Amino acid sequence: MSEQPSLPIKTARNIALKYGWDQVIIVARKVGEPGREHVITYGFGQANSEAAARAGNAIKHHLMRWPHALFSSALRVVGVGRDNDHPRFLSVALNTVPDDDDIRMVHDMLCPPTHSPAEVDRGA
Length: 124
What we know:
By secondary structure, the chain is an alpha+beta fold. The chain has helices at 9-19, 45-63, 69-72, 100-110, 117-121; strands spanning 23-30, 36-43, 77-82, 90-94. A two-stranded antiparallel ribbon has the order 1-2. The longest helix is centred in the middle third of the chain and has 19 residues, at 45-63. The mean pLDDT is 82.
């Protein structure tokens, strides 16, 4: 199966120009298997561009639960495989040597915090 293409930033720019918006934030999700999420932002001029980027990062972190470290990390997964000697282990190939922050980020992505409905209502 081919990978879902990312949305180009020009898609958000075209919406801004066509409809007269100063900032455009697009959230796209592919549910099911394989699932995927994508956020693009566009702002007219530097101040609006920075504001749209901050809003996009807030959406990614607070609503979609992406860890902050993911926003600035150059770390990318280039392969995943089984460890035949240890059936519960996975081997993950990365594009670069991870530092401690990268390893914590991967851990946080694989073990997200769980919250009760009451905690979610309070803004967890």
